[in-house]
DNA sequence: ATACCTTTACTAACACTGTTAGGTAAAATA
DNA sequence: TATTTTACCTAACAGTGTTAGTAAAGGTAT
């Protein structure tokens, strides 16, 4: 039954080429300029073929979002592994998150920039649980060894993520009035405060 | 020359009705569902009339964004006036900002949610300077009376705004997994840390 | 080998979208 | 009264997401 296999393989190739073409278009002209017809032209197939692989345009963007989180998670895992203490892990991950956002602005904007994603959309991103777990672990360690071991780790995770995201998104939209170094300082300041806030 | 006046007045009425209709549509179905034709139908004029008042659709959204910031600024001014010390002013403004976001999610999403606004767009929002000044003032006071009077107030303003925005936007997209009270606590925690971070 | 069915891919259309060119009729000016 | 300006419209252009219907090709069963 090699035939069915070959077909399946081919189908997955087409699916991958759709995502690849979509991604290239997003990087080139921004996600607002992405269109089904442009994708179809890029992969040299007719438009309806795309709907054999994705329910709609949103599903394609959702897949790119997932890709983005997978890539982010990878980078975070690597950063975490190279650090030893929970403090260093958190610090390294914060910097990595920041760097990911600015080295992959296209990804970051797809991940967070399509309007504010609805709850249903967020729940479809299974990669988020890995992301949470990754950061939650050193936070828990830090809390356990700190002076307030009854602190809610989810609260701290939430804070960490929120503030990092806020820093990045405000920074992305107004890079003129606030200099680069300034933001690096804000980031540094935040990380220090965040970590010491869990110890004491 | 009452005629020209009457005409001018009428023209401004139409302009206002465009914004009103646009706003109503945004509140009803979200900003992604806003269309020029729907606005035209609502105001009972043909489509091209809208282009006599606004260069394009983006200009309408930009005006709504400005309206949002004006409303936010108003609320912040009121909150600031009712508080005495810089600490209380900052705290009150943070809560007011938070409340504004969740009582006017439509505004907040127009203000921040249309993709990540470009630098050029941000520069067109003159209301932002009022917003900055409003928060900058108590920050400066607090820094001056603190132990590190050479702290950059812009850095602190940037931090304040970023983290507040991050808190809100992360919260808006995932209200299921994290409870309401949790976020109130995160907010409280942040404000306390922010203020004490400038004193000491 | 013939008949059948499923898969694959297409063209063409529907119902929208933002935007604008061009025309008409009314109102203001000369 | 003649002319110009304005106010407003219809109709179109070029694009969007999405889908109905069709034709051909591939594999399966009789």
Write structural notes for this entry:
The structure is a homodimer of 200-residue chains. By secondary structure, chain A is mainly alpha-helical. Chain A has two domains: 1-54, Arc Repressor Mutant, subunit A (Orthogonal Bundle), CATH 1.10.10; 62-199, Orthogonal Bundle (Tetracycline Repressor, domain 2), CATH 1.10.357.10. Chain A contains ten helices and no strands. The mean pLDDT of chain A is 91. Chain A binds chain B through residues 30-32, 109, 112-119, 121-123, 152, 154-155, 158-159, 161-167, 169-176, 178, 182-183, 185-186, 189-190, 193, 197, and chain B through 30-32, 109, 112-119, 121-123, 152, 154-155, 158-159, 161-167, 169-176, 178, 182-183, 185-186, 189-190, 193, 197. The first copy, chain A, binds a DNA duplex (30 and 30 nucleotides) through residues 3, 7, 11, 35-37, 45-49, 51-52, 56-57.
Q: What is the structure about, briefly put?
A:
2 copies of one chain form a homodimer. With 200 residues, chain A is mostly helical.
Give the total of beta strands of chain A. Answer: 0
Give the SSE order of chain A as H and E letters: HHHHHHHHHH
Q: Strand-residue fraction of chain A? A: under 5%
Mean pLDDT of chain A: 91
């Amino acid at each position: 039954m090699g035939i069915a296999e070959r077909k399946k393989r081919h189908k997955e190739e087409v699916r991958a080429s759709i995502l690849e073409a979509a991604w290239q278009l997003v990087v080139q002209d921004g996600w607002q300029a992405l269109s089904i017809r442009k994708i179809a032209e890029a992969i040299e197939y007719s438009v309806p073929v795309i709907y054999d692989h994705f329910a709609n345009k949103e599903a394609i963007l959702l897949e790119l979002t997932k890709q983005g989180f997978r890539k982010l998670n990878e980078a975070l895992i690597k950063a975490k592994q190279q650090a030893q203490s929970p403090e260093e892990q958190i610090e390294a991950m914060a910097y990595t998150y920041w760097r990911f956002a600015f080295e992959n602005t296209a990804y970051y904007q797809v991940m967070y920039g399509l309007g504010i994603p609805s709850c249903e959309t967020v729940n479809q991103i299974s990669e988020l649980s890995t992301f949470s777990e990754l950061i939650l672990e050193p936070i828990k360690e830090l809390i356990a060894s700190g002076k307030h071991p009854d602190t809610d780790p989810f609260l701290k995770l939430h804070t960490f993520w929120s503030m990092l995201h806020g820093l990045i998104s405000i920074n992305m939209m107004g890079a003129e009035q606030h200099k680069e170094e300034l933001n690096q300082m804000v980031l540094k300041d935040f990380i220090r405060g965040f970590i010491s806030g869990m110890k004491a």
